[in-house]
Design goal:
5 helices, alpha+beta, 349 residues, globular, Cyclophilin
């Protein structure tokens, strides 16, 4: 019998995502994909999946699923979510064998906004325009183009519970550190709309994420950023992480479900290496921005991708019976978050 996951509970904003739907921006179709690509890829690589394999993006609303049919290998990673398997507390990032009838639950913890639950071989939901990623505003991908809800059945693309080389393990991922480092930004393409004084204010001030934050954009509150050429431009392409300064004189950072084009001047773009760290912010949390060169942005991305590619070497076998002491030892989160697409010749910095 094939493996499948039954959704018992899914909070608001829990969706199916893969690496994204690329090649259709000129037709007005947004890529979607994971908000925190680094966490998504970490969970995927722990199972040997690639970016084309679909996983569940878990929001702060939480998730509970149960395995049916065959047992299936799963992996999860992301924000500081609390995971339980059959009531037993699990590490924040781990690879597990989920047996039929056994529930797995995730709920929001002390920090972080998204976590990812991957299954070996990916979720076998319908492919729409080359991707399984859900974009709810256009109703594409996932299950009917919508968020998940209780009762949904998610078929698994591959189920090989007998995998000899697999063992249950925690995932040591130092790139998930919550150190309050500045969010790195590459200037352009309309940075000339802002006087040097305005740019200085932007890079020397603290900005707080407002409640107007979703998969499309994050709105920040802070000092006014004055444009010397107004706040309207001829619409041009909008990249992931673009920082639009609207007529409110406040920054909006465009995220995974961003619109394909935008008519506001863009002071810069968040370096892809830091997109995941920005995505994991919660309303009310504050950050600062730091200007870097395109070359530095590319190098930080390559370093992070190399770290994540070695995620399989950061697997630490779980004890047969988890205790508080063993969980402290298993949550090997530390170091510096550096933060990714797959082809190094096709980066957006």
């Amino acid at each position: 019998m094939e493996a499948r996951l039954r959704v018992l509970h899914a909070g608001i904003g829990v969706t199916i995502q893969d690496g994204g739907r690329y090649g259709y921006l000129r037709y007005g179709i947004t890529p979607a994909g994971p908000m925190d690509w680094a966490a998504f890829r970490t969970a995927s690589l722990a199972l040997g999946n690639d970016d084309h394999s679909a996983a569940i993006e878990v929001s702060t609303g939480g998730l509970q699923i149960v395995c049916e049919g065959n047992a299936v290998w799963v992996a999860f990673a992301g924000g500081e979510f609390v995971w339980h398997r059959a009531g037993e507390l699990m590490p924040q990032a781990a690879r597990l064998l989920l047996e039929p009838g056994v529930p797995l639950q995730a709920r929001a913890g002390a920090s972080g906004t998204f976590a990812y639950l991957a299954v070996e071989g990916g979720l076998d939901t319908p492919v729409v325009l080359g991707s399984r990623a859900t974009h709810t505003r256009s109703g594409l991908g996932g299950i009917g183009g919508r968020s998940l809800r209780a009762g949904d059945i998610l078929p698994v693309g591959l189920s090989r519970p007998e995998r000899a080389q697999y063992f249950e393990a925690s995932i040591g991922a130092p790139w998930f550190t919550r150190e309050p480092l500045p969010i790195r930004v590459v200037l352009g393409p309309q940075d000339d709309h802002f006087a040097p004084g305005a740019r200085k204010i932007f890079f020397s001030s603290e900005f707080t994420l407002t409640a107007a934050a979703d998969r499309m954009a994050y709105r920040f509150e802070g000092p006014e950023i004055e444009s010397v050429q107004g706040y309207d431009i001829i619409s041009d392409g909008a990249v992931l992480g673009a920082i639009q300064i609207t007529g409110s004189k406040r920054p909006f950072v465009l995220m995974a479900d961003r619109q394909p084009t935008g008519g506001y001047p863009k002071l810069g773009a968040v370096a892809r290496a830091d997109i995941g760290r920005l995505a994991q912010m919660r309303p009310g949390e504050a950050c600062r921005f730091k200007k870097i060169s395109p070359q530095d942005a590319q190098q930080s991305l390559l370093r992070l991708e190399d770290e994540i590619a070695g995620a399989i070497s950061h697997l630490h076998p779980l004890p047969k019976k988890l205790t508080t002491e063993s969980l402290f030892a298993a949550n090997l989160i530390g170091g510096v978050f550096d933060a990714p697409p797959k082809d190094r010749n096709d980066r957006v910095s």
